[in-house]
Specification:
Layout (H helix, E strand, L loop, with lengths): L1 H7 L14 E6 L4 E13 L10 E10 L2 E12 L3 H5 L15 E8 L10 E4 L1 E5 L5 E3 L16 H26 L11 H5 L4
Parallel strand pairs: 6-8
Antiparallel strand pairs: 1-2, 2-3, 3-4, 4-5, 5-8, 6-7
């Protein structure tokens, strides 16, 4: 019963950030239920003409479950960590490890034209706990040993969190450009941004 419940908790957004995994088939022989989850990279969006803070990459990804599909806008940036954040990334990293490497941060927005938008999880490649946000934040977070949540007082995670500010602004710019285009795959209503972003 517990295994059946866990299998039911596997949803298509699992495939958003696992770039090499394109399809997942789930067969529950107890209940005789078969599910097929798939990822299709639909379109690379032009971002060079937009006034973005840094070099930003954006694409539309279609997630499919059996006969239903959901398109997502994924916007990503490569960031160079500070030396302090890099050294404190995890407990097992050496204090003298100066080989700083870039990391990628990503925002994924479900392109849902109508209805309520669900809260989305924070991801460290795999989904962690859902947050009261209507978009998914993906980064190389340092997570707790149970892999349920991000370590909140971790210097590396705090640095990543701060880096998302400019990416969120760029995501809104890409969304506005996408909404203004004539592409029928990305047609969104005028109130989409109001449903996506919290108003204070």
């Amino acid at each position: 019963e517990k295994c059946t419940k866990e299998l039911g908790n596997i949803h298509p957004p699992l495939l958003l950030f696992l770039n090499r995994l394109r399809q997942l088939s789930i067969v529950n022989r107890v209940t005789a239920i078969r599910r097929r989850l798939a990822r299709q990279d639909r379109a690379q969006l032009p971002t060079s003409s937009l006034c973005l803070s840094v070099e930003t990459d954006a694409e539309i990804i279609r997630l499919v479950e059996d006969d239903e599909h959901q398109d997502w806008l994924v916007v990503r940036q490569q960031r160079m960590p500070t030396l302090t954040a890099w050294r404190l990334k995890s407990e097992d990293q050496s204090e003298n490890d100066d080989g700083v490497e870039p990391t990628v941060i990503q925002v994924a927005v479900p392109l849902k034209a109508d209805g309520e938008m669900d809260h989305q999880p924070v991801c460290a490649y795999l989904p962690l706990t859902a947050r009261p946000m209507k978009m998914t934040l993906q980064a190389d977070w340092t997570v707790t040993s149970s892999r349920e949540t991000v370590k909140e007082d971790n210097v590396w995670n705090l640095w990543l969190r701060d880096e998302f500010a400019s990416l969120m602004v760029d995501t809104v710019i890409v969304l506005k450009s996408t909404m203004a285009s004539d592409n029928p795959d990305t047609h969104l209503p005028p109130d989409f941004l109001f449903r996506l972003l919290p108003l204070f």
